[in-house]
Specification:
Helix content: under 10%
Number of helices: 1
Radius of gyration: 18 Å
CATH topology of the largest domain: Jelly Rolls
CATH architecture of the largest domain: Sandwich
Number of strands: 20
Largest sheet: 8 strands, antiparallel
Length: 264
């Protein structure tokens, strides 16, 4: 297999899997080149429609095992071309996540993920906001369960988009195409954004919960069935939906319980 060796960290990746531009300055300084953004990763526009990545395209995830708030660590899943970051304010129990990333979709993901390894049932909930009102419509905050930190991991997620659309999505197996159930409230078109969102795993059943205007959290739509080997990862994340531009999502009043029936 053809390989490319990147400067300094000697990371070896198949050249067919990663589009790279190696500048003379980078080579001279022994620095790692910034990957270019492939055409398929560009978001939808009047002249372009984002499409699934090639079947063999992957980037290794970059992981930081430093605890943040209630989470064990954080990762740039799929290593977007702009590194992500996150901070925690204990006074407000708020996690501010900065991340680029072409999507959390198709057969692989790019997003900043704050995670905890866990076994058994899970209840996870948060208030979600987007500080920049002018961000890309399809940016999304997620409450997510993942089998691994690989970019193509099996997963189940609740995603809330910048427009307010909420979906319950799953990648049923590693490398599979994501499928989802979508719930449209009108979102940014009429100011309807859910006040609070939640996801619950009870055995192999995963369901989502919402509070649109501050009413008690209630299950929204039917659950899906998906099995995770234990332990797996549970946590929160954000994706700008722009492959080379970071944006910000804030998840506050986060609840993560190692049991079902505790979404609140």
């Amino acid at each position: 297999m053809e390989t490319v060796v990147l400067c300094r960290d000697l990371r070896i990746l198949p050249a067919t899997l990663l589009a790279l531009t190696l500048s003379a300055a980078c080579l001279a300084r022994g620095q790692i080149a910034t990957p270019s953004v492939p055409d398929w990763a560009q978001p939808g526009s009047a002249t372009h429609k984002q499409v699934p990545p090639p079947a063999d395209f992957h980037r290794p995830t970059t992981t930081f095992n430093t605890p943040i708030g209630i989470f064990d660590g954080q990762s740039d899943v799929g290593s977007a071309v702009v590194p992500g970051s996150a901070s925690y304010d204990p006074a407000s129990n708020a996690y501010t996540i900065h991340s680029a990333g072409y999507n959390i979709w198709y057969t692989r993901d790019e997003f900043r993920f704050l995670w905890k390894k866990i076994s058994g049932d899970v209840s996870l909930a948060a208030d979600a906001t987007f500080p920049d009102p002018n961000g890309y419509n399809d940016r999304k905050v997620v409450l997510i369960l993942r089998q691994s930190l690989d970019d193509d991991s099996k997963e189940a997620m609740l995603g809330e988009h910048g427009t307010g659309m909420i979906h319950l999505a799953q990648r049923a197996e590693k490398g599979a195409m994501i499928t989802d159930m979508q719930y449209r409230f009108g979102g940014g078109l009429n100011g309807v954004l859910a006040k609070r969102i939640g996801i619950e795993k009870h055995g192999d059943s995963v369901a989502i919960f919402v509070s649109l205007q501050g009413e008690p959290m209630h299950q929204f739509g039917p659950p899906i069935q998906i099995h995770f080997n234990e332990p797996f990862y549970a946590g929160i994340g954000f994706c700008s939906h722009l492959p080379d531009k970071s944006d910000t999502g804030v998840l506050s009043n986060v609840v993560l319980e190692n049991s079902a029936g505790r979404v609140k």
